[in-house]
Amino acid sequence: MSTTAAHRVLTGLDDARDDLEAFYRDLHEHPELSHQETETAAKVADRLRSAGYDVTTGIGGPGVVGILHNGDGPRLLLRADMDALPVKEATGLDYASTVTATDESGEATPVMHACGHDVHVACLATAATLLADAKDQWSGTLVALFQPAEEVGDGARGMLDDDLRSVVGAVDVAHAQHVLALPAGIVGTRPGSVFSAADSMRVTVHGRGAHGSMPQAAVDPVVLASMIVIRLQTIVSREIAPTESAVLTVGSIRAGSKSNVIGDNAVIELNVRTYDDATRQHVLDAIKRIVTAECMASDSPKEPEFELYDRFPPTINDTDTTDKVSAAFADFFGDDAQELPLQSASEDFSDIPTALKIPYSYWGLGGIDPKAYAAAEKAGRVSADIPVNHSPYFAPVIQPTLDRGVEALVVAAIAQLGTDS
Ligand code: ZN
Ligand code: ZN
């Protein structure tokens, strides 16, 4: 069984554990915003070099790639994201962040690893080292990729635009993982959809301003925007099959300044979540169709404007790759290997395997104290009591979270590269 090779690689974890935990605490205490992950990248590059990897830095900003050749076999890419969030940490941990940084608009903001990317970095750096120390247990090429700016959705694209392809070469398969608000110890993947695609859109519609007492002289953008908001609800309810899934939320609507003034425009900001490209395109096209038609119905004097931003691709696990990973997880983790529930959040990892035209499997990792989770579950208060990713209270327990993160990376890597049969 290939888990034998995984077990042999992981015998090194006992000696590496203190360093893994110390590195995690260090990362947690020193978070960096998207596109600013230079210190994190430097620490990772040092570790990869010491472990014998050929290291390339500065890809798409602070992106780092370490490559380890070890004979014939597949070329496997393992990815971790490095960025933190503009969140003021409230966990009370003794290694909590007190860091502030300047964001892209020039504002000072507190920074926190509130999404657990510090877990991903510490686990991948350690797994890469253990695999390098046990080269007799596998054959092929390992590509350890540390990506900036996942939270803003353009870090993976940034690395690709900076010629990532020529750095990593002809990769065969890719893996990535995320720590989630599930009980620590659990590891889970699923074939097909894992994370939704996300698109934000800013829609500006134009009216004609006038005195509030003279509507005949106006094209009222408040009424126009209201019609649009209501009509947009019919996309999911009337245009998407019941077997498909989509979310369309109008999160912001701004128009007007005073009760007796009809303004001259309205700005609607909305967010769309979908799980496949066809549904995604359908929803985005339908929004434009409805907005344009409502503007015509209102006799709007000017074409509406559409601006897409904060866009994330869907994450859709390859079935064969995921079956291999699931079987290896079940073998190694037993009952702790579970099917990951479909996640409504989004990730930009898949931009990389999609651009490289290779299959991938993404899995989730529990990070919540299992006792606290069980108590919340018993009380029917999981949503209320368990802080989720991006919460200022999100605080993965160090163990078994970190061990599991390293083990999952090694077990899945050996499933692709292991030399046992
Ligand atoms: Zn996040
Ligand atoms: Zn994240």
Q: What can be said about the biggest beta sheet?
A: 8 strands, mixed
Distance between the termini: 6 Å
Q: Give the distinct bound molecules.
A: zinc ion
- CATH 2nd-level architecture of the largest domain: 3-Layer(aba) Sandwich
Annotated CATH homologous superfamily of the largest domain? Zn peptidases
* Global morphology: elongated
Mean pLDDT: 96
Largest sheet strand order = 1-2-6-3-7-18-8-17
Radius of gyration (CA) equals 24 Å
State the secondary-structure class. Answer: alpha+beta
Work out the helix count: 13
Which consecutive residue ranges, at least 5 long each, have pLDDT under 50?
Answer: none
| Number of domains as seen in the coordinates | 2
Protein described:
The structure is a single chain. The mean pLDDT is 96. An eight-stranded mixed beta sheet has the order 1-2-6-3-7-18-8-17, with helices on both faces. A four-stranded antiparallel beta sheet has the order 12-14-10-15, covered by helices on one side. The protein has a two-stranded antiparallel ribbon with strand order 4-5. It has two domains: 4-193 and 314-417, Zn peptidases (Aminopeptidase), CATH 3.40.630; 197-311, Alpha-Beta Plaits (2-Layer Sandwich), CATH 3.30.70. With 421 residues, it is of the alpha+beta class. The chain has helices spanning 2-10, 13-29, 38-50, 117-133, 155-161, 164-168, 221-239, 277-297, 319-333, 351-356, 370-378, 382-385, 398-417, and strands at 54-59, 63-70, 75-81, 100-102, 108-110, 140-147, 173-183, 187-189, 192-195, 197-206, 210-211, 246-255, 261-262, 265-274, 305-312, 315-317, 337-339, 360-368. One zinc ion is lined by residues 115, 117, 150, 178.
